[in-house]
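User: Hey, quick favor. My workstation is busy. Could you predict this chain's structure for me?
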Amino acid sequence: MLAGSPRDGMPSVSVVIPVRDDAARLEQCLAALEASEVRPLETIVVDDGSTDDSGDVGRRRGARVLRLPTSHGPAHARNRGAEVARGDLLFFVDADVLVFPDTIAVAAKVLADGGPAAVIGSYDDRPGHPSFLSQYKNLFHHWVHQTSREEAWTFWTGCGAIRRDVFLGLGGFNEGYAKPSIEDIELGFRLRARGHRIRLEKTMLARHTKEWRLVDLVRTDVFQRGVPWIALMMRDRFAASDLNISAESRHSTVLSYLLVLALVATPFRPEIWPWTVGFAALAWSAVVWLHRDFYRFFVEKRGAWFALRVMPMHLLFFLYSGLCVPLGVLAHYADRRRAERTRTGPGVRELEPLRVDAKGAGS
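Assistant: No problem, here it is.
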């Protein structure tokens, strides 16, 4: 990938892509970047201990490849890429995400006027993988971003850009998250705590090509996102009413547990089953009413049958979201104790500025 020149008055952009054993989708990601209207100054692929030919794919596509001998997670990998980047802006994208020709141009334009310190985009409404779960999950993500406030309070590495000097000054991503988790959200919290603004630009689109499977979906939402997110909100004593934790979602979580409890009680008290079943139906009707626009969205995008299949997945979402709360509380206190002992891990709020390595490691 040849380096491009920024348009007059536009900041230069370094694209940073962490990858681990995902050569095929990395190839698609880099091909999409080559069609950008505003060509990045450089594209840096950080090979996070891959055992496949991900690094070779990056080199063949003209990217600068940093080879890490062992994997320490995407937070560590992105930080290493940021340290050697030369652009005014760092544009983070995942290896399984395809940008559109105008995606980088939109990011550069938003950050060119000296306003926000960072900008995040949104998945589009045409996910790359055709399976029901993959369509549901990525359309859910699209819905959340398209209906959220433009003044954001989290960062997002699926498709997000940040001023490089601000990123380095904050210490980059918290490498206490040794696996894919909420390192981007945590960075967003620190950005806002320092008085920086984050813009959610709904026209800054990208396409997710990941195939979701049920076990992976639940594991990711609970242990890699939900639980550490609750712990993070406790750490910073911050509670938002946006994205996946809106008031409607919190109410629906309570209603979903009441629904399940009513149905579980029915076999033990058969004489009251009309009441318990009726209560469960009423509870679910309330959930559907609270999220009527959400279901209408799925009907418009994929039809009524698809929207009906979304309903049990949505119920499951509320049930495991409720489980994240007590688990997140426990994780918060465990993180705090570990941080006090070792000064490492997600419990550490302030990070040292990242070093600037003009040469860096690479291959």
